[in-house]
Specification:
The chain is 47% helix and 8% strand. It has 169 residues and is mainly alpha-helical. The protein has one domain. The strands form 2 sheets. A two-stranded antiparallel ribbon has the order 1-2. A two-stranded antiparallel sheet has the order 3-4. The two termini are 18 Å apart.
């Protein structure tokens, strides 16, 4: 597997076609940008899983609090849900480059040079994705207009979502 990429927030544009080797027996593979509809479908899958995790976390919190609701205005509960969501996405991005939804739709996230994401870049990508979504989703849908099909969070963190090859059998 390629090494993790360096240069966390370098805003330089990357070339359109990048190559990397999957293993010693494979040939170099051009990183084809993933279609926006696949990215959206994968996000929908992942949001279902994150919602299930949030519900399970909420049930644990209710059990620990002996059925008492979390008081309105508590800062720790939304922060814990955000942390859980960040841990979900970043863990999958760092370990394999694919969330469950991305795996189902055969796409993966990589650095501009085709290498895997490290923890700092994955965390920065998640934070940038939140900012891109807060602008009424404009930063996420920017990929429709972008020649490389990259959203703001992809550009800001020098990552790209590409089509993943079929698994070897």
């Amino acid at each position: 597997m390629p090494a993790s990429c360096d240069g966390l927030l370098d805003f330089a544009d990357a070339p359109l076609a990048v190559e990397f080797t999957l293993n010693a027996n494979s040939t170099p593979l051009a990183l084809e940008p993933a279609p926006i509809w696949r990215r959206f479908a994968a996000l929908c899958y992942d949001l279902l899983l994150v919602t299930a995790l949030a519900v399970c976390f909420t049930l644990v919190v209710l059990a620990v609090r002996l059925g008492a609701a979390v008081p309105p205005g508590s800062w720790w509960f939304p922060l814990a849900i955000l942390g859980l969501t960040m841990a979900f996405f970043c863990t999958f991005w760092v370990h394999g480059g694919q969330t469950v939804g991305m795996r189902a739709w055969r796409i993966r996230v990589v650095c501009d040079d085709g290498s895997r994401l490290g923890w700092p870049r994955a965390a920065a990508r998640f934070a940038a994705g939140i900012l891109a979504a807060l602008s009424a989703g404009l930063g996420l849908w920017w990929g429709v207009l972008d020649r490389d099909r990259r959203g703001w969070h992809d550009r800001w963190t020098r990552t790209r979502v590409v089509r993943a090859p079929l698994p070897l059998r």
